[in-house]
Write a sequence for this structure.
């Protein structure tokens, strides 16, 4: 079973990479980009039937730093 | 005093901090590999050095914080063992939950590598007893992810409890409230981005960092 874990910065946490991307897009002439935020996508291949609680624990203990990041789990 | 330096794959300031510790304590520290599960007996200080542990994979310090030896470091810290994390070591200690907050990409996106002026905010800790509160010192920095982030409540608590050890005299990386180094609630864990171990003898351009190690030796015991 494949899981997709999306790790994103919490709202309000400054994202300098996102800012740089936003400015670079404007520099290329693209209008109307009001914001850019950079996150991560982590794909995990796990045994079928892996408990939700285990996946949550993986996210909290390693995949995301919950001081600054949120995560969302998607079952592919 | 017996000391230990933790070595991860990708550590690169482990030797620098070992030399500084040996100069001040008169004994070479034990170099402890990340896969070890125990610290040597009777160590009075553990140093988590700078570098790029695990190539900064996932997040700076994230993988190192979950390595076997860090369980021993965490339980030592819980018992009151002094733990010093410098640069990547600071990142490791926040990732391990031994210090609050997180270290993010520098606000200017640049790797900052130069001498910086710091203000000593708390001169009462085991790490800063040889400094004077409000004193300015110069330590080198060399980091890409030194932008200290925590929520306002945490920052207020750190300031209220005197847990900001050092601040940048002027902003260099976007750190909240110019925080350069923070102490644990009990005061026995210090993490800081600047490198005191690279400033311990006149040939380094100054020796402001030496007093951090001397103070530790004095407060932690010979």
């Amino acid at each position: 079973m494949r899981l997709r874990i999306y790790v994103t910065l919490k709202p309000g946490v400054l994202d300098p990479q996102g800012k740089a991307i936003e400015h670079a897009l404007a520099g290329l002439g693209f209008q109307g980009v009001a914001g850019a935020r950079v996150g991560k996508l982590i794909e995990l291949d796990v045994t079928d039937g892996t408990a939700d609680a285990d996946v949550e624990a993986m996210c909290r203990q390693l995949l995301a730093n919950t001081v600054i990041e949120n995560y969302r789990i998607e079952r592919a | 005093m017996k000391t230990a330096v933790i070595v991860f794959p990708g550590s690169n300031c482990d030797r620098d901090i070992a030399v500084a510790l040996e100069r001040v304590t008169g004994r070479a520290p034990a170099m402890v590999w990340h896969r070890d599960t125990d610290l040597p007996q009777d160590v009075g200080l553990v140093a988590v050095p700078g570098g790029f542990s695990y190539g900064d994979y996932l997040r700076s310090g994230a993988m190192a914080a979950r390595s076997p030896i860090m369980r021993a470091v965490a339980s030592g810290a819980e018992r009151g063992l002094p733990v010093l994390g410098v640069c990547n070591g600071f990142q490791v200690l926040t990732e391990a939950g031994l210090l609050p907050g997180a270290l993010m990409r520098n606000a200017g996106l640049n790797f900052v590598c130069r001498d910086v002026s710091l203000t000593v905010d708390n001169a009462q800790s085991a790490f800063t007893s040889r400094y004077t509160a409000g004193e300015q010192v110069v330590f080198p920095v060399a980091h890409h992810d030194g932008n200290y982030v925590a929520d306002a409540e945490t920052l207020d608590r750190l300031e209220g409890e005197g847990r900001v050890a050092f601040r940048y005299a002027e902003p260099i990386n976007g750190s909240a409230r110019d925080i350069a180094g923070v102490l644990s609630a009990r005061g026995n864990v210090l993490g800081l981005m600047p490198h005191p171990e690279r400033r311990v003898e006149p040939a380094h351009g100054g020796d402001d960092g030496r007093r951090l190690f001397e103070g530790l030796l004095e407060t932690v015991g010979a």
